[in-house]
Write a structure and sequence with these properties.
about 425 residues; about 15% strand; 2 domains; single chain; alpha+beta; 12-stranded mixed beta sheet; 14 helices; elongated
Length: about 425
Amino acid sequence: MSFGTIFRIAFRELMKNNLRAGLTILGVVIGIAAVTTMVSIGQSATQLVQGQIQNLGSNVIIIFPEGRRRGGVRGGRADAPSLTSSDSEAIHTECASVLAASPIVGTGGRLIHQNQNWTPRDMQGVGSSYLVVRNWTIQHGGFFTDGDIQSAEKVCVVGYTIVAKLFQTENPIGKTIRIGKLPVRIIGVLEKKGADMVGTDLDDIVLLPYTTVRKRINGSSFDSVHAIMASARSSLLIGDADHEIRQLLYERHGIAPGERADFSVQNTTEISQVLGIITGTLTILLSSIAGISLLVGGVGIMNIMLVSVTERTREIGIRMAVGARARDIRRQFLVESIMLSSIGGLIGLCLGTTMSVLGTLLINYLSSGSDWPIVISIPAAIVGMLFAAAVGMVFGLYPAYRASSLDPIEALRYE
């Protein structure tokens, strides 16, 4: 019997009981739809995380001050020799794999302009290389210079949210705002970045020379900084840059081999890898749970095929009597089982694709400001379809074997 004939007979038999066939493949439909949705949303989350890492900057390495052990007791950050702006300068000039470095001095305060006021989410004192490190550009105006930093000039650069809150449609360049009682002049507006994955507004930011923040706002005469951000020359050199920075700071801070460092170094590659492991693990876990539906669907297919064998016992006996071989009977029932699961897989794939798109849109709607990308996982779709066909084949083997092993005479007598 040719495969064309087998497929025609299989399709005809399925159409005889289309409601039963529809209910049988429901488990496969749900399983494939769930797997496709989970994998697509998981990949969307992965792309979102990678995009947020890129928002942090280009090949960024962040150095934080840490406490040191003294006599077996670990001191806090206040007890540790702080990172300094000279450390940042040394990293920039002495580490061959480092493109740029900037000290970070955090602060806060209310911005006031005429009758408008606003408290920004982020206010930092930074160096002149900060935009290079963050891979950020100026949309309007300019950035402060090394001269502005040396003289602690009262200038700042703001994000789009600050412009919208204090100036609306007015051009802010050259305007003066007050941070508490300190008047500062706006010399630039940053390129718009939008929100991060949790909806935090990245444009709600004010940047000032770190010396201005340290002396005029925080009132400190020390050279300590809260962190240093550096950028490797390329993604391939992040490991080299990390090593060079550690060795340089060990030497500058007089840290002996085996002694606990008074700083910690993190880079975006490590952060990206950790987040990738988390999202990947969750995707696999959720997909595995969804895959149970496929097994349930397979059991349903096997059950209905066994019922079909019983219902068609006399038909099987007639076919064997007119010359059908046992392998023809096996193929017939195996093809019917695979067709059931494949049709379910195709419907589930279409449903899963639709659900992944609608799910991503719903996440973006509920998470104000977030921008999850819509991802349709082609590999997941292909694997899902192959797995659906495999489920039909595996769970159809026993019914097919049982049908082909019937005794023709006993089958003809069956009523």
